[in-house]
Design goal:
Order of helices and strands: HEEEEEEEHEEEEE
Number of strands: 12
Largest sheet: 7 strands, antiparallel
CATH architecture: Distorted Sandwich
Oligomer: single chain
Radius of gyration: 17 Å
Number of domains: 1
Strand content: 25-35%
Structural class: mainly beta
Number of helices: 2
CATH topology: Deoxyuridine 5'-Triphosphate Nucleotidohydrolase, Chain A
């Protein structure tokens, strides 16, 4: 079941859902803005990306007025501007966040949240946002632009309250760390 505005606001008030501002709550989702951090794969044209090897990422620097230029045929990794997610409060209530693009973003030819759109129960932090420009020309987008939304689903059962404790988790809001993974 997807939460609608009244249920989202109630869950925020109780502390189960975290978002930077209740002004971002829409009828059945919570908008998110693009943060100031952006990276892209360092591989150049003609190079082969080997998924069994760690990938190198390079930071994308915005312009003085906060815009990024998103080139065609490249995958970019941005971040959400603030913390989003859920908290486990020990009362058996849990929600699952799902990241999606806003329709306006799609109409401008950008794909957001390619594959990592479903969040874990109890995760809260800045999210990595996958962005692809499907146009044949570059697209400019500014940090702070509302490019996506989170839809929240009711979880059928809750997980333990300590699910996101430990150094091996992404539970940080200081920035996104790229952890190389070997795919088998």
């Amino acid at each position: 079941m997807i939460l609608t505005k009244r249920a989202l606001l109630s869950a925020i008030e109780l502390g189960h859902i975290v978002c930077p501002s209740i002004d971002l709550v829409d009828e059945n989702s919570i908008r998110f803005a693009l943060g100031e951090d952006m990276w892209t794969c360092a591989a150049g044209p003609g190079e082969i990306v080997d998924l069994s090897e760690p990938r190198e990422f390079e930071r994308v620097h915005g312009t003085w007025d906060g815009y990024f230029t998103i080139e065609p045929d490249r995958v970019y990794i941005g971040t959400t501007a603030g913390e989003h997610g859920t908290r486990l409060l020990g009362d058996g209530i849990a929600y699952v966040p799902e990241m999606r693009a806003r329709s306006t973003t799609g109409r401008h030819g950008l794909t957001v949240a390619l594959c990592a759109g479903m969040g874990d129960v109890g995760y809260c932090g800045r999210w990595a946002v996958e962005i692809v420009n499907n146009n044949h020309v570059p697209v400019r987008i500014r940090a702070g632009a509302h490019i996506g939304q989170f839809v929240y689903h009711t979880a059928s059962t809750s997980c333990p309250d300590d699910a996101y404790i430990g150094d091996d988790r992404y539970q940080t809001t200081a920035g996104i760390r790229f952890l190389p993974k070997v795919l088998v």
